[in-house]
Known about the structure:
Layout: H1 27-45, E1 50-51, E2 54-55, E3 57-60, E4 65-68, E5 71-73, H2 78-99, H3 102-107, H4 109-125, H5 128-136, H6 141-166, H7 172-181, H8 186-206, H9 208-214, H10 216-224, E6 231-234, H11 236-239, H12 258-262, H13 282-293, E7 301-304, H14 306-309, H15 319-340, E8 345-352, E9 361-362, E10 367-378, E11 384-391, E12 396-399, E13 405-407, E14 412-422, E15 428-438, E16 442-452
Antiparallel strand pairs: 1-2, 3-4, 4-5, 6-7, 8-10, 9-10, 10-14, 11-13, 11-15, 12-14, 15-16
Helix pairs in contact: 2-15, 4-6, 6-8
Residues 232, 262-265, 267, 269, 277-283 line the site of one iron/sulfur cluster.
Amino acid sequence: MRGIMHLPGSEITMARTKIYPKYVHGRWRKLRNFFSFGLQALLFTLPWLQYNGRQAVLADLPGRKLYLFELVLHPQDTYFLHLMLISGALTLFLVSAVIGRTWCGYACPQTIFTQAFIMVERWFEGDRAARMRLDKGPWDAHKISRKLGKWAAWTVMGMWLGFTFSGYFLPIRHSFTQLMAGEVSMTTGITIAFFTAVSLFDFGYFREQFCCYLCPYARFQGAMLDRDSLIVAYDARRGEPRGKVKDQGRGACIDCSACVQACPTGIDIRKGLQLECIACTACIDACDEMMDKVNQPRGLVRYSSLNGLEGANQRLVRPRLVIYTVLLSLLGSLLCYLFIHRSPIGVDAVRVVQPGGQLALITPDGRVTNIFKLSLVNRLNEPTDFTVETEGLGEVQLAGLQQPVHLEPGQVVEDQVLLVAQQNLGRGGHPFKFVVRNQHQGNNWAKANFFIP
Length: 453
Ligand code: SF4
Ligand code: SF4
């Protein structure tokens, strides 16, 4: 994409020009609304869903657990999360390589909720021209009532969003009960207030600046697209030279600026692909409407690729698509395998430094002690007893743990265990395993190193 993308740089230091996107109807608007309502319904519903008697989707930060329906991830399972994040990133790469920044225009919460806030703004202040007039006009009773009404509605929306977002981190039913009883804990109150404030600031005021200046995705989109990726583009070969309707010898573009007025990031698509373009397709609808009015074929602004715009051959299958697809398939298979074969017991062991900064201590009778912090997780859906023993150290005593260890479903226990071994093992590190067994569900182990000074 080198050479065709407009890079905003010095604009970052310029004063912000407020954008008043004009509402446009059209087939792309309908499709965007469909996605927007569907995704909002999903976002507002997910935290309320229950699974096995608990919240189905919850990032329980104090409990250090991530619930995703059947999957419950503990700190010991971060590899799962990493693999899922890598898969998500690869999916984004693949989608971007095929259809550009469709995620931004159709599925990103930033776009969806900014559009929802703009919709409410339109109810109170009217469409683009009316909003511009209102902002330029004096602060009379009409303007004050419009602005107050808008911010009151936004505040209600922000609070509802704040409550919903908080529900992904705190049990939402519990928060709701607290709210209904008027006995909101400090944690719940601060979390809801935080998300409410962020929603109001971001969707009410900050808006497109997030996409243009903060979102990293916009910055590296150039690396993800190629000359065959579909992008929202202006067909300069057909449109130029632009001119007014009555101008002789002009191209198809009647220079009406409808595409610019509809753009939520305030750019002119006729300047080529730009970082600020979130592929929302509003300019396609706006231009199609104009083309209908002047009896010209639609599609002056349309989904196309750079090769398509230049009339060159377009390739559907490209090396990067093959590589992304293969990698995604491998990662997906690996995730499925790991999920199916996941041990019902999670175990992790970390050495604890002993008093005086020692890794090991010698007892008066000549034996050696090492201390480890042992974390156990019951991933089963039933209360279970586990036993812990060591393998690979010969005869050792394991103290500090009451056996069997009884764990409720999903419960995590962290305890310090003391290992006492004979000095005749020899100096240095001795690799061994903590083996955790369950009578019916198999076993799992964690590697550790016993140190003899
Ligand atoms: S240029 Fe078109 S597709 Fe890009 S953000 Fe503006 S209106 Fe949306
Ligand atoms: S809407 Fe279409 S015709 Fe009007 S300025 Fe934009 S590209 Fe030209």
